[in-house]
Amino acid sequence: MCSPVVPDTFTATTIADEPTSIYLAWSAVTTTTFGQPLNTATARFVLRRRGVQIAELGMSMLSYRDTGLTPYERYDYTLTVVTPTDTSAERPAFAYAGGSREPGIPTLLTGRDQYGTEWTNVTLPTLRLDGVTPLTNLAGVIVTGNTMNGTTEQRTDVNASDTGKTIALPFRPNADGWYRLTVRAVDADGNRSPASDTLLDFLGDADWWEERFDTMPNYHVMSGTWDRTTSFSYSPEGSLTDSPNGPYGASRRDTIMLYPLTPRVYPEADNLLFQVRVAAFVDPSDTVYFEYTWDLNKTWKTAAWWNASQNPRWTDTTKTEDAWLQQGILVPLWTDTMNVLYTRLRFRSNVTRQSDGFYIDDITYQPVTSVAEEQEIIRTIYPQPANHHITVDLTSDVPITSCSLVSLEGATLPATWTQLGSSLTVDVRSLPSGIYSLHLEHNNRHSVFRISILK
């Protein structure tokens, strides 16, 4: 006897909008293995699911809908042709009822509007995770934001017809900060997709004025162990340190991004003055840098740096109030004041010698305006910023009859000064860090110059 041939094709197809059904189809069989005609009147197709027969069909039937299945489970089938005396080989096929259980993965996008405000969008999937089955029961998007202080999760409902669309995320966490965002799609049965790629984004107010570390801000720790400490601070409650667990180790490369800043519009301002309190118990061969950029894709610039070579007090790691120094940091404003300023602290240590660590507290900023300088009376003013004295090289030995300093708040401060020919020396040791106007009287004229003091 000759057995029937096995069907050339046998397919199991997911029905996207019927997750409890699978569509089976196969090719016709009309011959035996030796090419003789098959008696189709007595032959039958036999379908088995997971080894159990579910249907016996006449030879004119070339498809079958298997129903009553459990959604998103895999089902394996075999198809054979049987006659009263013989049986063909098996032809296998499989499919998932409703496709793979998980929806496809959404895509996160980011950008910036004309005012410099960041926004985050998501492109919704069109297929389930198997990449084949249409996603017909999309129900929502779950956004997860991770910070150094914890995790926030929010769900937004969408329509099933929104697949493939790009929508704005209404993710609004309770606290401002840098968030590592991921997004998942969820279907009407509660199945979640795997998480998308991670997107780092700042969410919240980019127009902050001060940070005193009463709690730990949601800064972005790019590397290292930066954290808030309550063991040593200038103002009550806490400060930020690179070494929260004791002295720092060798070959450290630790970086933390502070909050970005969108300066308000100050038509006459050309700099931002950051005022900070620092205690840098940092070996002279190690350094902490305060860096800034107006474009994350470009080079970071150094605005200030600290280690124990700047202050003998920092070679003594005793943590008392006198270790804190007020520092002023000038950052030039971008020509478009609505651009975003990014700042970071970067710490690097050497291989052999280490110390206790770096501490910073009471970060504030304010826009400052340059005073128009009458260049005809001076040649140079140095150093800028100054610490103890400022030297003014005059263009001539014209007698200076009065010298005073005016703070940004408008307070006039008497200055001790001496003139020797065309050189004027001003004592600024009693003044705190900041930006000042230097007022000079000469030949019944009044000239004003900007100076900066950094202690």
What does this structure look like?
By secondary structure, this protein is mostly beta strands. It is 0% helix and 45% strand. The chain contains no helices and 33 strands. It has strands spanning 10-14, 22-26, 44-49, 52-58, 63-66, 74-82, 91-96, 107-112, 118-123, 138-147, 150-157, 166-168, 177-187, 199-203, 210-211, 220-223, 227-229, 239-241, 253-257, 271-281, 287-293, 301-306, 325-332, 342-348, 357-368, 378-382, 389-394, 402-407, 412-414, 416-420, 423-427, 434-442, 445-453. The strands form eight sheets. Strands 15, 17, 18, 20, 23 and 25 form a six-stranded antiparallel sheet that branches. It has a five-stranded antiparallel sheet with strand order 16-19-24-21-22, with no helix packed on it. A four-stranded antiparallel sheet has the order 4-3-6-7, with no helix packed on it. Strand 10 (138-147) and strand 11 form a beta hairpin.
Envelope shape? rod-shaped
CATH topology of the largest domain: Jelly Rolls
Helix content: under 10%
Which class of the largest domain in CATH terms? Mainly Beta
Mean pLDDT: 87
CATH homologous superfamily placement of the largest domain? Galactose-binding domain-like
Roughly how many Å apart are the termini?
104 Å
Alpha-beta content class: mainly beta
Largest sheet: 6 strands, antiparallel
Rounded to an integer, what's the Rg over CA atoms?
A: 37 Å
Number of strands: 33
* Beta-strand share of residues: over 45%
User: Uncertain regions: pLDDT < 50 for 5+ in a row?
Assistant: 112-118
Note the total helix count. 0
The domain tally reads: 4
CATH architecture of the largest domain: Sandwich
